[in-house]
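Expect sequence, tokenised fold; for instance:
***
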Amino acid sequence: MISMEDWALIRHLHHSEKLSQRAIAKRLGIARDTVANALASDTPPKYQRPAVTSAISEAEPRIRALLMAYPTMPATVIAERVGWSGSITWLRERVRLLRPEYAPVDPADRLDHQPGRAVQCDLWFPPVKIPLGFGQFGTPPVLVMVAAFSRFITAMMLPSRTTMDLVAGMWTLLASRFGAVPHQLWWDNEAGIGRRGRLTDPVTAFIGTLSTTLIQLKPYDPESKGIVERANGYLETSFLPGRTFTSPADFNTQLTDWLPIANGRTVRRIDGRPDELVAVDTAAMLALPPVPPSTDTVIELRLPRDYYVRVGGNDYSVDPSAIGHLVQVTTGLDAVTVTGAGRPLADHQRLWASGLTVTDPRHVDTAARLRHQFQQASSDISESGHPMRDLADYDRVFGVDFDTTAIDSDLGSSTGEVA
């Protein structure tokens, strides 16, 4: 086979120097047929290996049949179905080449984000164990919110992924970090936000107060909120390494101190810094509502005899004087408070750990005093025998007011009738 250099030289001698095929063959010391073939070929010569039949080629028709019926079938399952006993690497490579012919196409559109239009939201679970107190460790969720236009990142760790904690987290980040409300909040199908196209009632009330819109993206569409997904990855690779945390509060403190560094870097996609472009973002956003939205969980219940209420898997003590009465339990991100009849009954710091009992010593003292009073009253009754009630008490209860003069007059009347 002629080399590429000889092929180029033959064509040069014939077309540029006008030599005949015989002269070229004589000068290069090659056969005239070789010169003729080189001049007849418009493409450089290349070596082509003769096709040989291999085991993977013999299995290819069966692989194609499976991919036609099941385009997403894993290569390991295909190997089992076709009885493949060779190298799994070869089969994986052949499946990788064949699958695009049968797999459905899912194009990802390039989105154009306008200033102030959208903030993408997501939960990030950092792969570290955070001390929650009382010897417990866990991985609480981190709410991450990124402005789509400026790529400005905000984030904070939350006690849980329940609806009201998510609402409280969103309001905290919007009010303290952005100082404005975007026209749209983008979420995936997080259960605390809503499912099957229906938002939870607290979330509906929240976006109504903010006069904004919450869009839940369709399943299997991670590209739509790729901005916040990349922010999650950036936090994991740039914020976490080399750090230790003593509590969720310490995590939030370190994260708050580090975020200005993240927002001060130049993002190549937008050719700018998020901390500079965020002003353009917020200028196009909506103003914060004049009345803050409700972000606390409020439940009403009747205080039991043991004067404790359960919140987030923990029991918190309440003033025992409210036993048997309806009380309102309010749970925020940081505190658990209890009120009844307009007066405060308990005020505790919310715990991130679970299975604990939180007791205010004042409540224990009050319970002891009330218990002593109850036992003393029971003792007085037992010592005096069966208690007697004045019959006039029943008259007052039923609204009966007898006139003693009238009674005496009727008793002494000539008719002899008793009134």
